[in-house]
Each structure stands twice: as structure tokens, then as C-alpha cells.
């Protein structure tokens, strides 16, 4: 089985340039058994997403936000904890990502291979998946 993750840096940068963007530094706090720097991103009706960085501010440790429940209905607090960062092609990439739903660990992904610049077929984004 192959598990593939995609990150859209262009979408993130486009979002960051919107004048109405409500992105703020929320200070230092204790999380994940360490001191972290917290950034809050207010996403309209979706609420607040919190990004946790190392005390030096150079590595993203976790992302926490309220999302639609993957099964059933309603909303759940999702925490993605990025673990064991490794340098891949000059980019620090998490080797493991643990996903927590409402505080309970739901799954852990381990990356075995990272390829940059791989072309993605539009068929992958068709809904419903076939």
C-alpha cells in the first residue's frame, strides 16, 4: 500500500497575501513537553487554526484545527503532530505524522520516500473518488 501526501505551497502563499487574513502571533506556551511559539490563524466560520513552532521558530511541530469529522457528522479537533524531521533535498520534512482526533491518537503515518516535483493527475481530484 502506498500512502501519499501533498502540500500546496502556492495555495498557502496565495492565502497569506489576502489583506483580510487574520494571522497573529499568540506567544510562547508549553505543549508537547517543550516550549513552543504559537501562531493563530482565524479561518472565518471554521474557527482558529493553531500552528506550533520550535522555540527557535524554525520548525513546524504541529497544526491543530477544527475540521469536519472524517466519519459521521459534526466537527472534531484535529491535531497533526509532525515528528522526526529529516532533511530531504534541502527541505526539512517530517518522517512521521501522528493524527489525533479530539485528543485521542487516530493514526500515525510514516514517510518512506519523498519525491518533489512529481506531476499529479487531475483524475485524483475527481469527486467522488473512483
Structural features, described:
By secondary structure, the chain is mainly beta. 6% of the residues lie in helices and 52% in strands. The protein contains one helix and seven strands. A seven-stranded antiparallel sheet has the order 1-2-3-4-5-6-7, with no helix packed on it. Strand 2 and strand 3 (48-54) form a beta hairpin. The two termini are 17 Å apart. Residues 1-6 have low confidence and may be disordered.
List strands and helices in order, with pairings:
Blueprint: H1 9-16, E1 22-31, E2 34-42, E3 48-54, E4 60-68, E5 75-88, E6 91-101, E7 104-110
Antiparallel strand pairs: 1-2, 2-3, 3-4, 4-5, 5-6, 6-7
Q: What is the succession of H and E elements?
A: HEEEEEEE
Extended strand count: 7
Whole-number mean pLDDT: 80
Using the alpha-carbon principal axes, give the shape: globular
**Biggest sheet strand line-up:** 1-2-3-4-5-6-7
Count of helical regions: 1
Please describe the biggest sheet, giving its number of strands, its sense, and whether it closes into a barrel.
Answer: 7 strands, antiparallel
Poorly predicted regions are: 1-6
- Spatial separation of the terminal alpha carbons: 17 Å
Q: Specify the structural class.
A: mainly beta
Portion of residues within helices: under 10%
Beta-strand percentage? over 45%
Question: Gyration radius, to the nearest Å?
Answer: 16 Å
Amino acid at each position: 500500500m502506498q500512502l501519499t501526501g501533498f502540500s500546496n505551497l502556492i495555495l498557502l502563499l496565495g492565502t497569506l497575501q489576502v489583506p483580510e487574513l487574520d494571522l497573529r502571533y499568540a506567544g510562547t506556551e508549553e505543549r508537547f513537553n517543550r516550549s513552543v511559539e504559537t501562531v493563530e490563524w482565524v479561518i472565518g466560520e471554521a474557527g482558529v487554526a493553531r500552528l506550533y513552532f520550535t522555540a527557535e521558530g524554525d520548525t513546524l511541530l504541529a497544526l491543530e484545527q477544527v475540521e469536519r469529522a472524517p466519519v459521521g457528522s459534526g466537527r472534531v479537533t484535529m491535531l497533526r503532530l509532525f515528528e522526526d524531521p529529516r532533511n530531504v533535498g534541502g527541505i526539512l520534512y517530517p518522517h512521521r505524522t501522528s493524527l489525533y482526533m479530539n485528543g485521542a491518537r487516530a493514526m500515525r503515518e510514516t514517510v518512506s520516500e519523498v519525491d518533489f516535483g512529481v506531476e499529479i493527475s487531475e483524475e485524483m481530484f475527481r469527486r467522488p473518488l473512483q
